[in-house]
Backbone:
DNA sequence: CGTTGAATG
DNA sequence: CATTGAACG
């Protein structure tokens, strides 16, 4: 029973706001409480973080803000915010004066990206210039002094690969986008790219050749994206850690205790235009920070231009 | 990310079953743990309970079974089970050898009724004899030696009264049903009848005259049902407690702390054919038992036929 | 397994 | 405010 009954609630005082507490002992369901493992960025380096939060609202209940406070990146790129409008008071304008939100118009509570930056970009762009395929808030591009930043949540090919076709068309649009940007400046292409490139990039390659994220189609498409026409693009984490296996995974499904068993996938990337590679001072997988999401944050140190070799 | 990835889970052992514990200190979100207030039934009386559980699965996590163990009624009528099929192992066949489930075929996880009985009925019937209006598992009728038991979850008129019309047609069918049954034996008509009959039956009559459950249409229809053609039907609780107000409420909406503020409705009833009234030994509102549902159990003591006056 | 929004009460 | 099932991942 009930339905309306708004009349019952008319002149009642608002209930006390519930305080959601995180457990003192870290479980796998919240982010850490102790971030002493985070070291200061190397001198002359900017810190850029990419993180698929699998719902920003939910992540906030699991320690997202405390993580950001501890990590304190110069630029923070988020995917799967599932936000329907900008969350204006999530992170202070003082810490991050430049905030960019791209929310899905096609489907509510779905997909969505955001970027928080301490550095003011010269330009911002939502979606593609020449394609309307991004109606789900998956792409934000910022132009900085010495590079373009492309932060993206690549469409999943879907159960039984029902959206593989759309995914392939997305990849085409992205390659065109990167080519266009590289005419002016090198690019940092980051985010949840929703592909495990090689067998080394997931725990169970053999059983996943027809699973979304590890089809030949998606892997081949990513190889193609890494080629580029003027110069190659470099998968920075793999470049620096050619043999990393389990330590490379950035995603652990919630089902079947994948995290505990290290049954993961490497789906999140920093891909840089070759000319930028010399400025890459490190890529760090924050896989201690599982708990707010089924993904973990990934971090790039980029040497400032004057400091580069 | 994720989608399929069933392949990841292939040969993994099942995760340890989670144990849901109820807090030691009773809150308003679980039923009591101490049932010492439940007294034994008067000698020569059967105990019949009606309870809208607002999802039996959910109620089970909030102490429903412990309540039934303590209350131990002879007949237990449930409404809003939201079960899609009989829950075979809910209550033992030893305690309740006769179990009757009526599940909604029209909408999954919606409505639904059940009866558990220690006494074997002569006959059981699901829905109406002459109408197909009950496609949502709202009605079970059992014939016992000396009476018919009609246990019902009456359709809500809906927000903005969008289903008021359907509700009126339901009431018509119910009156025909009762008339037919009374040709052979008197009737106990119980359940969530989804109406507060009089102003005394809800906390805020003034603001609810166009709310589902307190429209003139529904109230008038209930009056009509109480008339009967051969003999009247008696609202047993009101008959025995003519002045009860807050103590009569059987429903407290979840919103706006209605329970704490005693902002309730009397929506659950035992209506008996006049010839049965002399056997009614008591009707008890178990409003200490809030917590599993937004309704509370209502209880009828019925004297055995030989013991009656 | 966990998140969302829609429907219902 | 609570519950459900559908969609998605």
Residues:
């Amino acid at each position: 029973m009930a339905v309306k009954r708004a009349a019952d609630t008319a002149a009642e005082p608002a209930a006390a706001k519930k305080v959601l507490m995180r457990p003192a002992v870290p479980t796998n369901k919240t982010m850490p409480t102790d971030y002493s493992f985070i070291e200061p960025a190397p001198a002359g380096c900017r810190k850029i973080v990419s993180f698929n939060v699998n719902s920003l609202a939910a992540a906030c209940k699991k320690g997202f803000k405390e993580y950001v406070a501890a990590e304190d990146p110069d630029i923070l790129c988020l995917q799967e915010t599932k936000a329907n409008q900008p969350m204006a008071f999530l992170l202070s304008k003082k810490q991050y004066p430049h905030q960019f939100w791209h929310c899905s118009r096609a489907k509510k509570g779905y997909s969505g990206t955001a970027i928080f930056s301490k550095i003011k970009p010269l330009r911002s762009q939502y979606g593609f210039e020449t394609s309307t395929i991004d109606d789900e808030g998956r792409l934000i591009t910022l132009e900085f002094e010495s590079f373009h930043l492309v932060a993206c949540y690549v469409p999943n090919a879907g159960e039984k690969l029902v959206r593989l076709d759309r995914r392939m068309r997305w990849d085409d649009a992205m390659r065109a986008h990167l080519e266009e940007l590289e005419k002016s400046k090198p690019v940092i292409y980051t985010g949840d790219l929703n592909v495990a490139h090689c067998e080394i990039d997931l725990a169970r390659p053999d059983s996943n050749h027809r699973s979304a994220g590890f089809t030949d189609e998606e892997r081949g498409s990513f190889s193609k994206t890494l080629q580029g026409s003027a110069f190659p693009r470099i998968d920075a984490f793999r470049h620096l850690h050619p043999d990393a296996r389990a330590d490379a995974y950035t995603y652990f499904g919630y089902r079947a205790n994948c995290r505990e068993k290290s049954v993961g996938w490497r789906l999140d990337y920093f891909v840089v235009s070759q000319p930028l590679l010399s400025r890459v001072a490190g890529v760090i997988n924050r896989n201690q920070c599982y708990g707010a999401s089924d993904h973990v944050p990934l971090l790039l140190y980029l040497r400032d231009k004057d400091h580069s070799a």
About this structure: Residues 9-20 of chain B have pLDDT under 50 and may be disordered.
